[in-house]
Input
Amino acid sequence: MFNPEDQVTADKVNDAACTHSRRTTTKVPLSQPFVGNGFPDLVTALDSEKAAHEFLQQPPVRAVDDHLIEFSEAMRTVAKALRRVAEGKAAAQEEAAEWKRKYELERAHNLRLNHIAPVAEVCHCTSDNDKCVNQLDQSMVPNPVSDQSDRCCGKHGICSHEILGDEVAEPIERTLAAKKASFRLAWGCNGEKSGQHKHEIVSFEKGNITTAERSSKQILLKWESQPKNVLILTKPNSKSVRALCAAMVRWLKEERSMNVFVEPRVKIELVTEALDYNFVQTWEDDDEIRLLHTKVDLVITLGGDGTVLWAASMFKGPVPPVISFSLGSLGFMTPFHSEHYRDSLDSIFKGPISITLRNRLQCHVIRDAAKNELETEDPILVLNEVTIDRGISSYLTYLECYCDNSFVTCVQGDGLILSTTSGSTAYSLAAGGSMVHPQVPGILFTPICPHSLSFRPLILPEYVAIRVQVPFNSRGQAWASFDGKDRKQLAPGDALICSIAPWPVPTACQVDSTNDFLRSIHEGLHWNLRKSQSFDGPRD
Ligand SMILES: NC(=O)c1ccc[n+]([C@@H]2O[C@H](COP(=O)([O-])OP(=O)(O)OC[C@H]3O[C@@H](n4cnc5c(N)ncnc54)[C@H](O)[C@@H]3O)[C@@H](O)[C@H]2O)c1
Ligand SMILES: Nc1ncnc2c1ncn2[C@@H]1O[C@H](COP(=O)(O)OP(=O)(O)OP(=O)(O)O)[C@@H](O)[C@H]1O
Output
């Protein structure tokens, strides 16, 4: 006879089996869609956890445990088989599409040889619509090939000009070709439907998609009130930096009446040098550091790229404009020369200044041991990159990577670098990644020594969330490091989720973003330096 209590127990066992399988397999994150900020549905997760917890309170039953292990193994095998089937299907579809494309090209070519004029599938003209409709009608009449050049309106921005040679004879296609379907583009941004920015980038006039403005341009900063508060951050253990810092602090205070903030270490150094440096301000604890962005108009760094990274890491939220003076050996992000600091700072205080908005990556480590996925550690913001590598382990790292809800790949090698475009000239470059202009929005996905012949680096769009997971069958642990610092161990089951942070680092340019970037790769890396070819032969 059916007993409702038995059913409840059976449900609990099922729930517990699901929870158990989530802990013992690595495919389940795919079935937990990211909601909003990338976390799975909390209610479902909590319900499952609760049921599993109640189930585990019951006296252990050996047979059930064995059953669960067997069940999770079976699930893993099924998931693998499904993935293989999906990959096979995608490859077959791709091949079919390629054959279809070739076939259509061939048909079009044959028709052209038969002197039959092609028809425009959709003619998206803006101003010359009448003319085009007429042309469409005429185009149904066989014409010499030479007449085609003035047939359509390529001069009006994007104009679909597909050749449908094989459909010319079908009268029904004539009606379809003359009438254009209307559509709208919508920005799929976490369910936000207002789409208020879209007209800045794309104009929709009469259904034509035309980029009216580029998404990213040279940005100018104009002061609306005079900057008064300056934070100076300096590379430690450098005599030249210390001397420059002392001179700059005095000039800012005495000649420009600025309030100057420095790190506690630097204040001690300055006051030890001369007591009248007592005017410099500093902070005592982390709470004050968290409020620095509300007090400081701009940040000056004295050092190399490492000092710029250090400055960025002090701001866990918004960052004031950063002016970086070069006192290091490379200085990709330090465009200002320290000898001319007075002139440079005066022109910056006056404004306007060109700035580069450097995106940062926001990284969340999610522990398998956490009771739910909201129990994460504080997010870490990086200006260059987050690296997941094998650390001291001598095994290959084995990392499963997902982009939003799509499986990307498994990394088997020394590790993986997720880099900003600013970081593209740092570690990612050394691992074979492209150099990317810092204003290009994107996330670089660069493997470190992959044990594979076909693993090329990727650049993913800036709106995605990337999840890197250490699977349960990984032989070793992995380690994450953030801008080359703060190593964190990732055990099997742990994951790291990365997306572009809402707070970029605005760095002042010497000239402008592009000029500074090109100067850095030329001077810093001697990019594409080669002796010019000589020429001493006769001219044609
Ligand atoms: N194999 C490698 O190339 C490698 C290995 C480890 C770390 N790094 C880089 O070092 C960075 C940490 O820098 P640090 O100064 O604190 O350590 P560091 O003192 O070890 O210097 C690393 C070098 O990388 C350069 N660098 C840093 N950011 C750069 C950028 N965005 N573009 C071009 N060059 C850049 C620095 O100028 C410096 O010469 C990490 O974020 C990582 O990118 C590189
Ligand atoms: N204010 C700071 N406090 C603590 N550490 C800092 C500070 N500024 C920089 N650092 C660290 O000091 C190290 C060296 O700094 P930086 O890279 O600026 O100098 P560098 O090595 O001489 O320059 P380059 O990298 O161009 O050769 C970096 O690891 C950086 O993180």
In short: Residues 233-236, 263, 303-307, 309-310, 328-331 surround adenosine-5'-triphosphate (ligand 2) (CB under 6 Å). The first strand starts at residue 202 and ends at 203. Residues 1-45, 115-170 have pLDDT under 50 and may be disordered. Residues 378 and 402 are 21 Å apart (CA to CA).
